[in-house]
Design goal:
eight-stranded parallel β-sheet, 11 helices, globular
Length: 457
């Protein structure tokens, strides 16, 4: 999961209106799942999710069913009802049975203060081990995949890793980025960066839908898409000839100077400067439609394979600048153009919340920004999420407890009960990233107390 804190903001047009009336109520063809025990709490209504990143936890779980089982019991004891297990890390290899993608035999991670390769020599089914342990502990298991990535550029002497480097997928699938005035392949991304695939490419989309279908064969509670977006390091992501043709067909006219007429070279490394042009608004709508249509197809793939599996996405809660990722995660009934001057009149049409059964909002504010309003407080992120989603889907909100300011220094156990209270009051559930930070900072008892105290109220 990308942990970049997006703090720059465009000017906004303030309006009092929120969501348009629904055209029809969602008609999901399944019953809501049992809330689960969550450590004995069968009466709880709101779920509590903890994310388990693949790389960050690989040294503990890659070769040990016992460690998986032990930690699932500890997770239940803390009061969490669900885990979200990363089974397609940013390398693009997988931790489930697949005939389409290579297995993850090693991942790069920090272990004992050093960055290096963590090998997997065990042959047990990684995600199935979590499913089995979850059933025993009374914790529901959801799987997450990093979607439009295909490799990771190594650093500190660790080699590149992923199917684009091993030749399992074609190098032409990598995004073509507008960088320093030139269009270059993200295959040559900076070390320490994920290589993104082009979401416009139909071969890429078919490949990812096949992987999602394979994952849906497991007895999971849910499947969540992470990095289901364009690369969000800048607006220069994806200016291939293929994408040019698709955009010109979408906009109804040719672009004379590609890509400079869409994004000036000076803006490609960041945000749109000044007042957005009509062409730029069309570009943002085109990108949002690209991701919307894939999410719709992915939801259909999951539900056609197993209608009992819930489908959802992880997104960053900083909506005011999330256009950088090419994603409109709001309800299509939320009229974005009334609130943000970068959105065209059609931008709302590409909100995909109504295709999700649930959603994870990364409310990644600093440790001293728990309560408040607006973006960049945990409470404000959750409140804004409720407004943007218009009731189209349930969402869990919560912090990254290891990277933003304050959290990165540890020693924040006393803040966790307030985080739990705020998120469960304001959202439909609690979401915490990541289990590795709970372990590293010994927050086990802090979450057990925070969740326990909330449930007693």
């Amino acid at each position: 999961m990308l942990l970049t804190m997006l703090v720059a903001a465009l000017s906004v047009t303030v309006a009092a209106t929120g969501c348009n009336p629904p055209q029809s109520a969602p008609d999901w063809p399944w019953e809501e799942p049992d809330p689960g025990t969550g450590g004995g709490d069968s009466s709880a209504v709101k779920p509590r999710y903890v994310w388990i990143d693949a790389s960050a936890n690989f040294s503990r779980y890659a070769n040990s069913r016992e460690n998986i089982a032990d930690d699932m019991k500890r997770i239940a004891k803390m009061g969490f009802t669900d885990v979200i297990v990363d089974v397609r890390p940013s390398e693009g290899t997988v931790l489930f049975h697949s005939v389409k993608a290579p297995a993850a035999t090693w991942l790069a991670a920090w272990v004992g203060g050093k960055y290096g390769k963590v090998e997997r020599t065990a042959d047990f089914d990684y995600i199935q081990a979590f499913i089995d342990a979850g059933k025993s502990a009374g914790v529901r298991v959801n799987a997450a995949i990093n979607t439009f990535v295909c490799g990771y550029r190594g650093l500190y002497g660790v080699p590149d890793n992923g199917p684009i480097f091993s030749g399992d997928i074609d190098a032409s699938w990598a995004c073509m980025d507008y960088k320093d005035g030139n269009v270059v392949s993200s295959y040559t991304a900076n070390v320490g960066d994920a290589v993104f695939m082009n979401p416009v490419n139909q071969d890429v989309r078919a490949y990812m839908l096949d992987l999602i279908g394979e994952l849906a064969a497991y007895d999971l509670n849910g499947i969540i898409l992470d990095r289901c977006r364009f690369d969000d390091t800048n607006l220069g992501c994806e200016f291939s000839d293929l994408t040019r043709g698709a955009f010109e067909a979408f906009s109804g006219s040719a672009v004379a100077n590609w890509p400079a007429d869409v994004i000036p070279a000076t803006d490609a490394a960041g945000y749109i400067s000044g007042t957005p042009t009509t062409l730029q608004k069309k570009w943002l709508s085109f990108r949002a439609k690209t991701i919307h249509d894939f999410v719709e197809a992915a939801a259909g793939k999951v539900h056609s394979k197993n209608p009992k599996i819930r489908f959802g996405c992880y997104v960053g809660a900083w909506y005011s600048t999330y256009y950088l990722s090419g994603v409109n995660w709001a309800s299509p009934r939320y009229n974005t153009s009334l609130h943000y001057d970068w959105a065209g009149n059609d931008y709302a049409s590409y909100g995909y919340a109504d295709h999700c059964d649930f959603m994870m909002l990364g409310c990644y504010a600093a440790a001293n920004s728990i309560e408040g309003s607006g973006e960049w407080t945990i409470q404000g992120f959750c409140r804004q999420g409720k407004t943007l989603l218009c009731g189209d889907t349930e969402f869990a909100g919560g912090p990254d407890i290891g990277n933003p300011d304050g959290w990165n220094r540890g020693g924040c156990g006393d803040r966790i009960p307030k985080v739990v209270e705020v998120c469960l009051n304001e959202a439909d559930g609690l979401f915490v990233f990541d289990l590795c930070h709970i372990r590293a900072n010994d927050y086990w008892s802090a979450f057990e107390k925070g969740i326990g105290d909330y449930l007693k109220k």
